[in-house]
Specification:
- The protein is an alpha+beta fold and about 190 residues long.
- It contains 5 helices and 4 strands.
- Helix content is about 35%, strand content about 15%.
- The longest helix is centred in the N-terminal third of the chain and has 22 residues.
- The two termini are about 40 Å apart.
- About 5% of the residues have low confidence.
Length: about 190
């Protein structure tokens, strides 16, 4: 609705300016009194001879004190019976490209030794890193959790090498390995 109202208002203003612009003998004087920030092409009687071999007249300079008309006048360089169109400049964005790398955290799982939760880093459609956010701790669990972390985690671990949750079980840490695989599966399902 707002766009339609603006379009109608703009059309009415353009039509009024065109009628005034085309209908009065002092065209350049009327055009300078219109409130807009667009430059005006000079009328044929205002054009100074150009040294340019193309025959295109140079545009006059516009000062901040003299507002200009939204409609250009005829130029001597354009043959009669032809139409000129202007193309809008292409839009450029300043938005940074979105990164395809993302972190996905799997569900956590409890086993008889403790809580296990895994997070993966995905770039495009590949797992580039795996990290155990939580592994059982205390006593022998520290040793077995370290073995699991050493085997599966990191950028060079088994998760990145295999790109799935079908990992080899760490000897002596079967429960922790199984919980790691379950958490990893849930992360992979969320990521892909």
């Amino acid at each position: 609705m707002r766009r339609a109202l603006l379009a109608i208002t703009g059309l009415a203003a353009s039509t009024t300016a065109l009628v005034v612009f085309k209908g009065s003998p002092g065209t350049s004087q009327v055009a300078q009194n219109l409130p807009t920030g667009q430059p005006v092409n000079p009328t044929p009687q205002d054009v100074e001879p150009s040294a340019d071999p193309s025959g295109v007249a140079p545009k006059p300079s516009v000062t901040a004190d003299a507002p200009t008309s939204p409609k250009p006048t005829k130029s001597t360089a354009r043959p009669s019976g032809t139409r000129t169109t202007t193309k809008a400049a292409p839009r450029t964005t300043t938005k940074a490209p979105q990164s395809t790398t993302r972190r996905v955290t799997g569900n956590g799982f409890d086993n008889e030794y403790g809580y296990v939760q895994v997070q993966i880093v995905v770039s495009g459609n590949r797992i580039v890193e795996a990290v155990a956010l939580s592994l059982p701790s205390g006593g022998e669990s520290d040793i077995h959790s370290g073995d699991v972390r050493d085997r599966y985690d990191g950028r060079g671990g088994e998760v990145v090498q295999k790109q799935n949750a079908n990992l080899n079980t760490v000897s002596g840490a079967t429960e922790t390995s199984n919980s790691y695989k379950q958490s990893l599966r849930s992360a992979i399902e969320q990521a892909f």
